[in-house]
Amino acid sequence: MVKIVTYNVNGLRPRVAQHGSLRRLLDALDADIICFQETKLSRQDLSGDVIMAEGYEAFVSCNRSSKGRGAYSGVATFCRVTSAFSSQEVSLPVAAEEGFTGLHDYAKNSENIGDFILAVPVEDEGLGEITREDLLKVDNEGRCIITDHGHFVLFNIYGPAVEEDDKERVRFKLLFYKILQKRWEHLLALGKRVFVVGDLNIAPASIDRCDAPPGFEKQMFREWLRSMLREQGGPFFDAFRSKHPGRAGAYTCFNQKVGAEEYNYGSRIDHILISGACLHQYDSVEDHSIFQCHVEECEIMNHFKRGNSELLSKWKGGRSSKLEGSDHIPVYILLKELPELPVHNTPSSAARYLPEVRGQQQSIVSFLKKGKTYEIQDASAIDLNFSEDTVDDSCCSDGLENKTVAKEELAAGISEFAKGGNFASLMHKGTNDTSSAVSYNSKKTSSSSIKSLPNKKIKRNLSSQPTIKSFFQQPGSNTGNASTSTLSTPVEPVHYTNETYVPNDDSLPENMQCTASATEDQDNTNTSCSLTTDKRNAATLEWQRIQQKMKMTLPRCKGHREPCIPRSVKKGSNIGRLFYVCARAQGPASNPEANCGHFQWAPVKSKDKRP
């Protein structure tokens, strides 16, 4: 059995944090191939904790668009394997490709699966002339990863979501799917089996949308998707709908802003489409398709825990609570009777080979290497910039000495040491007992030797930000180890009074606000903490009083006679204008417990004209 899961994670890093690690997230889905959409990772955000997991190989595509929206979109395919090399597993692809237009300007290590070539410019009846720049824009948003698993080619897709009045994005979405269709047709013509999984942002029929309005199925993109399905002469099976043709209320996406999941008010926009012949040796492709012969089940994973939903009160206008985690539900397909592949290795476009990830990984060998030793022959042999393994960076964060003076003294000490003097004693000349210095002892005296940090430059200046510990130190206290000499770094002086210092930011955790140095007077600490707690409690009570007063002045909805919630217009001619709506979660119109649809404009205060 081979299990494939598609899941719009709505940000991969938050999902990893929610489960504790990437490995735990992947193991919770328990699949051989896991396709994530909307990872919201840029190339600069790629790191081992969100891409690399033991027992999995990853293939990613990130947004490269320069539209100024930050990290958005993005897809990632994780393949569970027992070996990344010399493997026969179906889950490990034999080839992988980022994007689907066939252009390799954006991914040099990417392969062209099926040797797809699209001559540009292309003339299209609905889009006009399609240029090379148009195609690059399609791939630059990181919306597709293709992996070839021998028996089938898998497309991990995150389709664009657009507003109907945004002509530019509507054209982009139309171009996206038309070029994608050409790629599918090319592979099918080669005899390949094609699997398409992901968030297509299209609900194909009225049954796939709660309370679908009249004319719902006549929308352009819904008509296109249905034309791709077998029911209307297309090549693809909608795996879920083909297995469950009459199931209503089967949704995969819910609007969290209106609490739609509470009453199952959603849509089915996460799909698994499959096309191609079965693996059996039969003449009739019609009777023995990949769907009919090899698909055991396709189901929505309603049981999958996407957030901490236990003991949560009902949704109240988005303020009381909402489901933590993604607004999508995973979907899986189970395949049977797939034989093993010939021996193959992980493709070169895997995440393990990306410089953003590979450069940050460390092997255990690096922790077992001996520290470097240096023989000083003259003063020029020492790098005064401390760019190599010479200074412990952690010893330079809290000192108050002048870096320039220390550096000059170090230079003078080095010169005299080269002539035969004692380096450590020379560096202590002209300084008091509290000033810092550099000790130069033999390798065996490890307690006083300088710690090594590889390839780190010490860059400090007078504007260096002090750590939070410095606010809780007693004036004149020395936090350093008396037995270990350190090289000091200047930090902006912090002026204390006789009273215990407490941060002004009430947003700090209570235990942090009440933490003080062990040498400080305990009575002062208790007094400061008490004052801070009282101030915070007073602010909380005042805010509760304001909220209660607001509730008393809020209008009540007509359906439930409950206080409405205020909202404001985000765009258009009425931008900024306040209005009131029912506070209950959105649901079917037939459900009296759901949102009653109440809407009321807030009164506008007239501005009196002054003479």
Can you describe this structure?
α1 crosses α2 (22-29). Helix content is 22%, strand content 14%. The chain is α+β, with helices and mostly antiparallel strands and 611 residues long. Residues 310-315, 318-322, 372-408, 423-463 and 477-520 have low confidence and may be disordered. It has a 6-stranded mixed beta sheet with strand order 3-4-2-1-16-15.
Brief account:
The chain is an alpha+beta fold. The chain has helices spanning 12-19, 22-29, 48-51, 132-140, 167-189, 220-227, 239-243, 290-294, 355-358, 365-368, 403-418, 423-427, 510-513, 522-553; strands at 2-8, 33-37, 56-61, 75-80, 95-98, 122-124, 128-130, 144-148, 153-158, 194-199, 237-238, 253-254, 266-267, 270-275, 295-300, 331-335, 565-568, 578-581, 599-601. Helix 5 (167-189) links the parallel strand 9 and strand 10.
Mean pLDDT: 75
Share of helix among residues? 10-25%
The share of residues in extended strands comes to 5-15%
- Derived structural class: alpha+beta
Main β-sheet description: 6 strands, mixed
Give the neighbour order of strands across the main sheet.
3-4-2-1-16-15
**Coarse morphology:** globular
Cα separation of the termini: 83 Å
Number of helical segments with 4 or more residues: 14
Low-confidence stretches: 310-315, 318-322, 372-408, 423-463, 477-520
Number of DSSP strand runs? 19
Radius of gyration: 32 Å
